[in-house]
Amino acid sequence: MVDNKSPAAVEAGNDGFVHKKAGWSKKKKIIVSIVVTIALLLVIVLPIIFFVVVPKVAQSSINGSQLEFLEASILEPTDTTFKTALKIKVTNAGHTSATLENDGPTTVYWVYANKEVPLLEMQMGPFSVADNEGMIDQTVENVKILDPETFAKFNKILVVSPEITWRLKANMKVRALSRTYKGLTMDKEVTLKGMDRLQGVYVKEFEPTAPVDQTGASPTTLSMKAIIRNPSPIGIDLASIAFDIALPLPAELVPAGSGIPNPLPFGVSSSTAAATLAGNNQNTEVPLTATIAPIADAPAALRPTLGTQMTGLLAGQASVKLVAQIKDVGGPAWLKQSLVGLPLNIFMGRDASYEAALKAFSGEH
What we know:
By secondary structure, the chain is α+β, with helices and mostly antiparallel strands. Helix content is about 20%, strand content about 45%. The chain has helices at about 25-65, 150-160, 305-315, 335-340, 355-360, and strands spanning about 10, 20, 65-75, 80-90, 100, 105-110, 115-120, 125-130, 135-145, 165-175, 180-195, 200-210, 220-230, 235-240, 240-245, 265-270, 275, 285-290, 320-330, 345-350. A hairpin with a 2-residue loop joins strand 6 (about 105-110) and strand 7. Helix 2 (about 150-160) runs parallel beside helix 4 (about 335-340). The longest helix is centred in the N-terminal third of the chain and has 39 residues, at about 25-65.
């Protein structure tokens, strides 16, 4: 009789012999169970990882990242668009290597007076992050000015303020772990340095373009270079710029009731070539020509002082503090609205420097 309870059942074959019945050993059953369990886990867990966990990690990395604008120059401006050169340092971006790309335009909002005002729209290119950081270094064409009047107001504040705040919003997609994940968002508030009244403007190089009339009856024309440092990462193309120049007078020279204006109109100046106002405290040289009013046109009581001052200035033995007011700017209407009327303090002398200009106007705004 065959024992069916034995580890391997046996049965009689046609050949008259007794054969063992084929069966699975306990070890095989365990291996098969493990393989099936792993397969089931992979079928269940992998989609969760790729479609739930990774997107959440990617969104968390975007949320936790920080943006530092190193450059955001306004180039080739028109009434409705401009080109920008962007350099943005990305930190706290997570440890997974990834390529991020805007899934549509980025909208830049101006955060001011407890309001968020739509300012710009741009289509940025992809950028990569790895080991917790990355760098956005790209030129973006056709940045759209959403409202030129609002953009003019923004630039007016930018020029006089120590800092400004933007908010950037965009839909994003991320390429990581050989897959692309859509449906992510970026919402970042960033603070940038403003131009802070462009303090520290100085003129060190200047020469008369014709012999100086020693009698003071004729104007003096100078060729010179103004050096401007812009602390903001936001630079801007200037096609041309023109100033009215005035000379601040000490109180003792302007007695009450004298009728002498203070500061005293001193001349006019205009650029002789286009210039790009660089950002991040780089020196920008602006070539200028200036026409200084005849000393004979000044009030009689001031002529001796002005004559001595002008002689000393041209000889390299004296420096002067000037106040220039921008009266015209070449370019689109919003740029004119932003800059015309802006006063600039200028320190002029052969020994002039950025530090000397700051010291000369210390406490003045």
